[in-house]
Amino acid sequence: MPETDPTVPLVLVLHGLEGHTRKGYMVQTYLALADRGMRAVGLNFRGCSGEVNRKPRFYHSGETEDVGFVFGLLRERFPTRPLMAIGFSLGGNILLKYLGERGAKHAATFSAAVAVSVPYDLSAGADALERRGMARIYTGYFLRSLVAKVRAKKEILANILDLEAVWASATIRDFDDAATVKLHGFSGSEDYYRKSSSNRFVQSVRVPTLLLQSRDDPFLPAAALPLSAIEANPFLTLVLTDRGGHVGFLEGGPPWNPAFWVEEQSASFLAHHHQSASATTPDANSIAHGRVDPNTGNL
Predict the structure, then answer these.
(1) 183 exposure class (CB count in 10 Å sphere: 0-12, 13-18, 19+)
(2) For residue 4, is it within any domain?
(3) Do 53 and 89 belong to one domain?
(4) N or C, fewer C-beta in 10 Å, the chain?
(5) How many domains would you assign to the chain?
(6) Which value, in Å, is the radius of gyration of the alpha carbons in the chain?
(7) How, if at all, do strands 209-214 and 236-241 pair?
(8) 1 inside domain
(9) In what order do the strands lie in the sheet with 39-43?
(10) What is the pLDDT of residue 133?
C-alpha cells in the first residue's frame, strides 16, 4: 500500500489456503489499516500470485521460512519502523507457528499480531473438511485449485510425485499425502499435520496477539481449539464468537453493504498497541489478556 507516515507500523498480511493478495478480505484489511494510518504489505505464498513458482516446492500450513525471509527484508529496508502482522486461516496458522518458534528470544522484533480463523489442529481440520456439508464445498474448491497448480508444473514434478494419485485426490488429506508431504519432506499427512499445527506453538508466543475465532468455523471443530494453552498465555487475547464461519464475521447493514467486523477489529487492535507503545503515559484502557467476551467494546 502507499506510504502513509514513515514512523507508523508496517503490517504484513498473510492470506489463507489458495488465496492471494487481492482477495476481498485482504483488500478490506489493507483499507482498514490505512484508515488507522498504518501501511499494509501483502504477501503471496509460493504459486499464489498468478505466476507459477519455479521450484518443485509449494507452500504449506507449517512453512515459516518464507515469512521469516520477508520479515527480515522489511526490517532491513525499514530498520526503525514497528513491524506487525495479520494472518488469515492458513496464514494465521503459519504466523502463530512462526511467532511460537521464535518465542521470547526474538519477540522484540514484532510489536503485535492478529490471527483469524486459525486451523489450530490440522488433522482435526482435515477431518472436518471431509465430513461437514458446507466444508465439503470448500474442499472441492481448494482441490481444484491445488491440482491445477500441480498440472501447471507437471513436467517439473513428474519424477517427484505420483501424478495419477494427485489427480485422484478426493480430499485435502488425499492431496497432502500425494503431494504436500512428498514435496516438503514429511513421512505422511499425519506427520505433516502434527509438526505444522499451531496448537503446539501458541504457548511459546511472546508477542501481544489477538485471536479471532468462531465456534461455527467449518474448518475446525470447536472442541479442537487449544483453549487451555491460549488462556495460560498472557500474550494472547482470544475473542471467540458463536457465529462468524470461516473468515466471515459480517455484521450490520443491508446484505449488499455489510460491515467487515474482523478486518476492523484486527486493525483496531494493532492501532491500539501502536498508540500505547507511543504514549508517554500508561493507557488507562489497555486490552485485557486471556479469553474475552466477543463484544467490540472490549477491544
Answers:
(1) middle
(2) no
(3) yes
(4) N
(5) 2
(6) 19
(7) parallel
(8) no
(9) 39-43, 10-14, 83-88, 112-116, 209-214, 236-241, 290-292
(10) 66
| Sequence-separated (6 or more) residues with CB below 8 Å from residue 224 | 120, 121, 124, 125, 199
Q: Cα(113)–Cα(20) distance, rounded to whole angstroms?
A: 19
Most confidently modeled range among 105-109, 226-230, 291-295? 226-230
Nearest Cα residue to 88 out of 45, 150, 134, 52:
45
Hey, how many other C-beta atoms are within 10 angstroms of the C-beta on 28? 16
DSSP state of 102: H
The verdict on 170 and 251 lying in the same domain is no
Q: Which amino acids are annotated catalytic?
A: 89, 217, 246
Domain span at 245 = 10-120+198-298
pLDDT digits (tens, 9 = 90+) for 42-75: 999 999 999 998 899 999 999 999 999 999 999 9
* Cα–Cα separations (whole angstroms), residue 136 to 86, 118, 140, 172, 197: 26, 18, 6, 10, 21
How many angstroms separate the CA atoms of 142 and 183, rounded? 18
Please state, in angstroms and as integers, the Cα–Cα distance from residue 248 to each residue in 144, 214, 243, 259, following that order.
Answer: 22, 9, 9, 10
Cβ atoms 89, 212 nearer than 8 A: no
| pTM of the complete model | 0.90
